[in-house]
């Protein structure tokens, strides 16, 4: 402040200015106050705030207990028409019937399922945007991708597991092998000459092939495709030698006499093809199944998580869902919220060395 200018002001004006400054300090400087000495409107505001706090808490609790009271968006990070889409629609139909509210499947494919996963991660934690918890985005992507727009462990709430789907190893009909040991022997005799197709880099079909290479000590050429359809065509046309794929597709080709099925990648023989052995019967430790569950953004209220988890369990126990899953070659696979999150973390850790050894990396 300019002292000379201050004292050039007449005395009575200086007194008014000091009084104004004192009033402003009283308003803006934090000082302990006795509520009884507060101005009436300040006291009323504080009282209203105190009354509003329990009312807001009651409102939040009521919103959680009433959930869902409108349409729930279920984000599927894969295109329409595939196995995950079909299975998701089966589950969402059952949840709609159980709750009386629509669970709407919204397909948001892209970047190997990362686009849809990010939508769920960024959604408000109110229970009205949930999505598919998938091995691709939540267990494979953290190792496969150099950078992700989400943290698979921190940005999601695991709610329930829903299904597991094994892969089947199939070969072209004129490949001179009928068993897994014969295939391994042929690959060792022709190192780097045999090829295996997959539905894309970083998928469980590719990782199944990589795991076969690692456990059997063989060298195979990986030929990635954008989806299974073209890969199946090239296998039938003898352009590639073998392929792992989610069991529904290979099962139809095998039943139609178009390919030769050798084994499944689950730890137990699959009920849809009990005549096929498991890969682990020949290579101990071989397990590679695709799985799906329900997740939401981080911060979902625990009561809401438990409610949806219980609804998912009830849906999977229904005869209609069981029959529809069996038709798709899927096995119902419910887990509690805590076990769901732990399973995802364990699978990420289990798959990381397989992915790294394969050399697959997306920048």
Q: What do these coordinates show?
A:
This protein is 47% helix and 17% strand. α4 (83-99) packs across α11 (302-316). β1 (72-76), α4 and β2 form a beta-alpha-beta unit. Strands 1, 2, 3, 4, 5, 6, 7, 8, 9 and 10 form a 10-stranded mixed sheet that branches. The protein has helices at 3-7, 11-28, 40-66, 83-99, 114-122, 135-144, 180-189, 204-216, 228-236, 248-255, 302-316, 319-327, 337-358, and strands at 72-76, 103-107, 129-134, 156-171, 195-198, 221-224, 242-246, 260-264, 289-297, 331-332. Mean pLDDT is 86; it is low at 1-14, 16-33 and 55-60. The radius of gyration is 30 Å and the shape is globular. With 363 residues, it is of the alpha/beta class. The protein folds into 3 domains: 7-55, no CATH class; 68-165 and 291-358, 3-Layer(aba) Sandwich (D-Maltodextrin-Binding Protein, domain 2); 167-281, Periplasmic binding protein-like II (D-Maltodextrin-Binding Protein, domain 2, 3-Layer(aba) Sandwich).
């Amino acid at each position: 402040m300019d002292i000379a200018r201050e004292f050039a002001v007449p005395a009575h004006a200086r007194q008014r200015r000091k009084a104004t400054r004192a009033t402003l300090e009283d308003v803006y400087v934090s000082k302990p106050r006795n509520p009884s000495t507060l101005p009436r409107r300040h006291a009323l505001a504080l009282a209203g705030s105190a009354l509003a706090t329990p009312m807001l808490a009651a409102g939040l609790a009521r919103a959680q207990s009433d959930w869902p009271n409108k349409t729930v968006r279920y984000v599927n990070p894969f295109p329409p028409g595939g196995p995950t889409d079909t299975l998701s629609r089966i589950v969402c139909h059952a949840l709609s019937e159980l709750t009386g509210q629509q669970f709407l499947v919204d397909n948001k494919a892209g970047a190997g399922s990362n686009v849809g996963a990010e939508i769920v991660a960024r959604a408000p934690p109110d229970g009205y945007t949930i999505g598919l918890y998938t091995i691709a985005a939540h267990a494979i992507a953290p190792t496969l991708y150099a950078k992700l727009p989400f943290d698979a462990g921190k940005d999601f709430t695991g709610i329930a597991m829903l299904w597991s789907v094994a892969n089947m190893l199939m070969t072209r009909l004129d490949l001179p092998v009928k068993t897994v040991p014969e295939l391994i022997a042929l690959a060792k005799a022709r190192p780097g000459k045999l090829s295996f197709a997959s539905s894309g880099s970083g998928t469980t079909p590719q990782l199944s092939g990589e795991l076969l290479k690692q456990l059997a000590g063989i060298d195979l050429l990986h030929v990635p495709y954008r989806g299974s359809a073209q890969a199946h065509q090239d296998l039938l046309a003898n352009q590639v030698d073998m392929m792992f794929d989610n069991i529904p597709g290979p099962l139809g080709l095998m039943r139609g006499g178009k390919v030769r099925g050798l084994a499944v990648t689950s730890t137990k023989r699959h009920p849809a093809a009990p005549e096929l052995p498991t890969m682990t019967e020949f290579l101990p430790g071989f397990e590679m199944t695709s799985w799906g569950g329900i997740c939401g953004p981080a911060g979902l209220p625990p009561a809401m998580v438990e409610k949806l988890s219980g609804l998912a369990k009830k849906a999977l126990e229904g005869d209609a869902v069981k029959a529809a899953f069996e038709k798709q070659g899927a096995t119902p696979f419910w887990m509690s919220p805590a076990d769901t999150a732990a399973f995802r973390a364990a699978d990420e850790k289990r798959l990381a060395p397989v992915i790294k050894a394969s050399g697959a990396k997306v920048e």
